[in-house]
Amino acid sequence: MTARKRAGRTRKLMDLEELIADVAEGQKLTGEQLRESDKEWARLRKEMHETNKRVGELTSRFGRISEDLLWPSVEAAVKRQGVRIVSINLRTKAVRGDQIVQESDILVLGYRGKPERLVCFLASVKAQVRPEHPDEFVEDLQGFHEAYPHLRDAEVLGIIAGIGIDPTVQKRAERLGLFVIRVGPRVARIANARDFKPRVWTRSG
Predict the structure, then answer these.
(1) Which strand ranges, in their side-by-side order, compose the sheet holding 188-190?
(2) Confidence of residue 184 (pLDDT cuts 50, 70, 90)
């Protein structure tokens, strides 16, 4: 082998070693970048978890504020229906065994008529009433007597109460036979049309 060939082969080996070193260094950097990315994702997931927790706490607090703001208006609306109120219950839960079968924001019990009949006004209170809320609330009303068997003889009426209620949502609630209470410029008031006829849910449906 001539000196020139040996020199050429040596150069190729050196070039190959440099290429291998470059690849190894690149892999090292990529590994470091991946590890850094993993750390960044872990930090991001932690921040998202903490943010979701804070949002959940804020939503729960806002919901309680809405209930505290609106329950006097619910009480007044029930009295205007000729009801002799015997109890007002906030944030009630119907429990069967260890399972919660139904939750209610406001549950008002009373008597009306001659002879007096037991009536229950169930109110769903929302800061912002969304389009699906009236239909979901009707499902709760339909299942009320099963969830509260000790009140199986009660006539049940539903109230949707909210700080913000879109007119189309209000119309949907009225068509379903629900009272609607909306916060106005000064006070909360019943927003139903004058010819509104509420629906009464009984044990037989």
Answers:
(1) 84-96, 99-112, 117-129, 155-165, 179-183, 188-190
(2) low
